[in-house]
Amino acid sequence: MVEDCCCDYETVDSINEEVLHPILQDLVKLPFFRYFKVKLWCDCPFWPDDGMCRLRDCSVCECPENEFPEPFKNPYSGLSPDSMICQEGKPQAAVDKTLDSKVFKGWVETDNPWTSDDETDNNEMTYVNLQLNPERYTGYTGDSARRIWDSIYKENCPKYPSEELCHEKKVLYKLISGLHSSISVHIAYDYLLDESTNSWGQNLPLLYDRVLKYPERVQNLYFTYLFVLRAATKAADYLEQAEYNTSNPEDDLKTQSLVKQLLYHPKLRSACPKPFDEAKLWQGENGPELKQEIQKQFRNISAIMDCVGCEKCRLWGKLQVLGLGTALKILFSVNGDNHLNQPLQLHRNEVIALFNLLNRLSESVKFVHEKDHQLKRSLRSRGLQLFKRMLPSRILNWTSSEM
């Protein structure tokens, strides 16, 4: 069993391979989930931003005004010729950052109590096409990158395991560790193998060194995946009725259909009906105070994303932290499966972040499952060859004949 969850690893791998991964891959490519609204230019509230990116792949291309769906944008207000060139040199234009009320037709504008960004502040936000800005290796390393994770773990999420940590704080640690593992997986999956030839591919030694050789990191990746999956399925009725409007009826119907397939799939509901049981949390007399404390810690983690010195890393960090914050919001504002403490209201951006995070975790689980078995077979094969070389030839010949 995945620790603190209600599913075993074999079931997760099977359901992810057969059901969740294929649907999520199709879903995030559709216009509604492809465009994420984000603040990319924020001052770091904790220290001066001195992070440097070695690669131009750190930069983010904003969407051309004529690209993202009609309901998402304002009437054309004019773009200068200079703004039609992205800093990567590709013909991507800067975005008109002003939005009108039609953008959020059918969606409320509400801030998430678990995250630091003001989701209603449209003036400072811009649209980014996630398909053109994949999460991958960017060359963002060194003290600046290390300081981000050190700050997250040391100041807001004390090291686990510790006998002094309550269950709720262990959950927070495991969520962050699982997200960290997933990010490492995607860096290893899409890595710059040779800068001189611009050759990209899989870096399996990096995957092993950062994730696979640490069983707890793999475990926390699965835990985070099931936690977010539980949030999505718990909000199924809300998400089923949501308006996925991009002024393209065919795409919008497909989006709604895939969301329903994902959330109500019979194989998922039978094999893993309740991936995580949130009812076990906040049960003590100090529950409300503890919830406020952990909520504050997670808001701090959200604010730290503004200190990431790489645009593309900042984009995916902010999106995935918002996705986790949305999962926390769903699980801890809804009491039971059908009864609400308060009406659940999600911002469109929260839904986009939730499903993109779920897809990122799904990809990571699939890649880890495949490569873990591959590496183990490789290590067993190498071990057997080494063992044979160490045996005297007489014994080796006898063993071979007996086999």
From TrEMBL:
Keywords: Disulfide bond, Electron transport, Endoplasmic reticulum, FAD, Flavoprotein, Glycoprotein, Membrane, Oxidoreductase, Redox-active center, Signal, Transport
Active site: C310 (nucleophile), C313
Cellular compartment(s): Endoplasmic reticulum membrane
Disulfide pairings: C53-C58, C310-C313
Bilayer-crossing regions: none
Chief site of localization: endoplasmic reticulum
InterPro entries per the UniProt record, alphabetical: Ero1, ERO1-like_sf
GO CC annotation, single: endoplasmic reticulum membrane
Entry's Gene Ontology molecular function annotations: oxidoreductase activity
Signal sequence annotation: none
Domain of life: Eukaryota
Residues annotated for FAD binding in this entry: R136, T138, W149, S177, H180, R210
Cofactor(s) listed: FAD
Topological relation to the membrane, as annotated: Peripheral membrane protein
Complex and partners: May function both as a monomer and a homodimer.
PANTHER family in the record: ERO1-LIKE PROTEIN (PTHR12613:SF0), ERO1-RELATED (PTHR12613)
Official protein name in the record: Uncharacterized protein
Species, as recorded: Urochloa decumbens
